[in-house]
Write a structure and sequence with these properties.
Length: 315
């Protein structure tokens, strides 16, 4: 299947980045943009008139499920941005989502295309650092620094549309499961309303319990200190994965050695993700990531439950 045209639902910052990446991959591709006020009937007519078979969903999170169900009925392959839905839509998802599918359904967790994280996965599987004792995953930043246009109107701090650090930075939960598997238990503490006064999670600390290790995850977007990465303490030393400086360093016996460095940027990862999606479509290779991504949302709901109950919860 030759890719000549694509539908993009949502013209926010990520929708614009997807357009930029698509034009870089193929400057002849025709992009049909859907605005927030366009009705389903209008979208339906646009799809039928132009015989569209490919779509990207980059609208607010609370609208994703509506568009996913619509595109499935139209038999259109799609990539939906994270978070796939809001955590309070889990029951609605179970009730309305059709699991049977002959289309490609991907979710925009582009950190799975990070060269640093893929290299880390190989290092972990090689046994180079031996038995793992504990892990710390951290992502801290200051929201106004990366929503520069008008952060006060940003979806990131809109509780109704899927804002808050847990949904906005759910990449970390996704790649934790991808690298280390699903935890057995979790316990969480959530801070709200420190700076932005929007009744959203601004800072979260979670402990994920595995049979032989513990992962501590710290997430915030109210910190002026920007950092993103992983620290792994193991039998044969420690690893520091720096996702900002893009390098992996091994520490052992008072010495350190850089194992890997990369110059890949965020746009490069989006490009890798888009090429992956387009190749699946081109060669008609079915793939469905919905179940894995719903698991991320389910864990987010458990994190909130743990914070309210102040208890350790089974995952």
């Amino acid at each position: 299947m030759k890719i000549k045209k694509i539908l993009i639902i949502g013209l926010g910052s990520i929708g614009k980045k997807h357009s930029q990446v698509l034009k870089k991959i193929n400057n002849k591709i025709k992009i049909f943009n859907i605005k927030k006020n366009d009705s389903i009937n209008y979208i339906n007519e646009l799809i039928d008139k132009n015989r569209l078979k490919l779509a990207l969903i980059s609208s607010p999170a609370d609208t994703h499920l509506k568009y996913m169900n619509f595109l499935k009925k139209k038999n259109i392959n799609y990539l939906v941005e994270k978070p796939i839905i809001k955590d309070n839509q889990l029951k609605l998802f179970k009730r309305t989502y059709n699991k049977n599918s002959n289309i490609i359904e991907l979710v925009g967790y582009q950190l799975r295309f990070s060269k640093i994280l893929n290299k880390l996965k190989k290092v972990l599987y090689s046994g180079k650092i031996g038995k793992i004792y504990n892990i710390r995953i951290f992502v801290n930043s200051y929201l106004p620094n990366w929503r520069k246009d008008n952060y006060k109107n940003s979806l990131s701090i809109s509780k109704k549309k899927g804002g808050g650090v847990l949904l906005e930075l759910s990449h970390e939960i996704d790649y934790m499961i991808w690298l280390f598997g699903k935890p057995k238990y979790l316990k969480a503490i959530i801070d709200k309303n420190n700076i932005f006064k929007k009744n959203i999670e601004e800072k979260v600390c979670i402990f994920f319990y595995y049979p032989q290790k513990t992962i501590q995850m710290d997430m915030s977007f109210n910190s002026r200190i920007e950092e993103r990465g992983i620290i792994i303490n193991a039998l044969k030393g420690s690893l520091k994965v720096d996702l900002i400086k893009k390098k992996i360093t091994h520490y052992q016996n008072n010495q350190s050695k850089v194992l890997y460095k990369s110059n890949q940027n965020n746009l490069d990862m989006l490009n890798e993700q888009m090429n992956f999606f387009l190749n699946l479509v081109k060669y008609n290779r079915k793939k469905n990531e919905i179940k894995k991504s719903i698991e991320v949302i389910r864990i987010i709901s458990l994190i909130k439950k743990s914070n309210l109950s102040n208890k350790k919860i089974r995952v």
